[in-house]
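Objective 1b. Sequence-to-structure analysis of UDP-glucose 6-dehydrogenase.
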Amino acid sequence: MKIAVIGTGYVGLVTGTCLAETGNNVICVDINEAKVQKMIDGEVPIYEPGLDVLFHRNIAQGRLSFTTDLALAVKEAQIIFMALPTPPGGDGAADLSYILGAAKDISKLVTTYKVIVNKSTVPVGTADKVQAVFKEHTTVEIDVVSNPEFLREGVAVDDFMKPDRVVIGTKSEKAQKLMAELYAPYVRQGNPIFFMDERSSELTKYAANSFLATKITFMNEIANLCEIVGADVDAVRKGIGSDDRIGKRFLFPGIGYGGSCFPKDVQALAIAADAHQYDFQILKAVMNVNEKQKTVLVDKLLKYYKGDIKGKHFALWGLAFKPETDDIREAPALYIIDELIKNGATVSAFDPEAMNNVKAILGDKISFAENQYDVLQNADALLIATEWSVFRNPDFEKMDSILTNKTIFDGRNLFDLQKMIDLGYYYNSVGRRLITE
Ligand SMILES: NC(=O)C1=CN([C@@H]2O[C@H](COP(=O)(O)OP(=O)(O)OC[C@H]3O[C@@H](n4cnc5c(N)ncnc54)[C@H](O)[C@@H]3O)[C@@H](O)[C@H]2O)C=CC1
Ligand SMILES: O=C(O)[C@H]1O[C@H](OP(=O)(O)OP(=O)(O)OC[C@H]2O[C@@H](n3ccc(=O)[nH]c3=O)[C@H](O)[C@@H]2O)[C@H](O)[C@@H](O)[C@@H]1O
């Protein structure tokens, strides 16, 4: 099939590349000229494991191309995907200007039947709004489909190639048939495609993200309680996770959920509910708890240093909002850095992939190191904000010689408690026994 993808961010580029991988002809459009030029020159603009191999293969075989020319992309495409930003607007609700603006631009270019697929996360009723934009500007027949994306950054290629499910919201049989054909190669193992109406499909996406954010937040509260009552959250996590009704995944406590989606989507759903005079109380509690959880590590630190960290220097492992990505949107590490600086401390950080993105926004407010050991030089303590695999089994002998204070505040519970006692560390993690000197 001939496909156009509008927007080449984490979702658009993965979608375009993975659709090309099953033989489709995909043209990707972006308004960011520098980014498009990079891709034309053969460079993947984001760090996403496994993407580069597929990207280069499909370009080489002529199935994947990039342009800034929307007209060129729309001309031949049977299906047009919109993978555009839906950031929080001034009032916190999803800003639909990218989607509705692109819909208007596309509507002026269509001359034959097209399926317009919305992959972005959008409030209920957006498909109707997009349909209305087309009606206003063209008489050409089009169908608008809601097809939310459930991929996770860091494993995006796998998630797209083997999705747990595909959700397609449309009342059009014609569009449904085309979408079923397009997705058939991705559901060969029997994972379902759910066809539903547009509104249910749009809400499914917000419900999924909000449920997962709630699950994490629940565990963060259990972790906080564990510390108070002297229980161990790792044991509790295993104890409840083995019940199939609860499930093992997304039960890891830490320093709050971050990323470009959970924070904005939970907020957008709560605000959308408010707009319909429905007080979505759980989501409001989730947001409040998550806000506090982001500074839990700094609170521990301040307690340890009796409220005074002025002049202290801290090493930070991890900047990305999660491992295996260079994405720092709403990364808990950024909140930690902010709090440390506000309290008069200095920070040196190391992250395997996200340092350039942080440099671009923080400049020289903090310093950066070449590796996870150099960053420990002159540090009063080490803070851990992201659970990159490379941090899980460090060379403690080497660490001991640099981090002479042997003090670690770990927001991701990387190390075994007994091991840290044996190694003689002060090791303060989340929801587990506090280790004192
Ligand atoms: N990042 C993720 O893991 C996931 C994101 N989503 C949703 O997908 C949507 C996109 O998210 P991301 O890919 O993370 O965004 P992103 O910010 O990484 O990428 C958006 C891209 O769209 C481009 N763009 C903006 N306006 C344009 C226009 N008029 N024409 C062409 N290109 C334009 C930007 O230059 C940028 O490259 C959002 O609604 C998000 O909530 C859904 C699932 C996963
Ligand atoms: O809509 C989206 O953008 C995507 O949002 C999340 O994916 P993503 O943000 O890439 O990352 P997750 O792995 O879900 O992690 C989100 C945050 O929750 C935190 N988290 C996750 C799991 C856990 O057990 N504990 C925990 O604190 C992570 O550290 C991270 O800050 C969803 O998992 C995807 O299904 C969805 O498509």
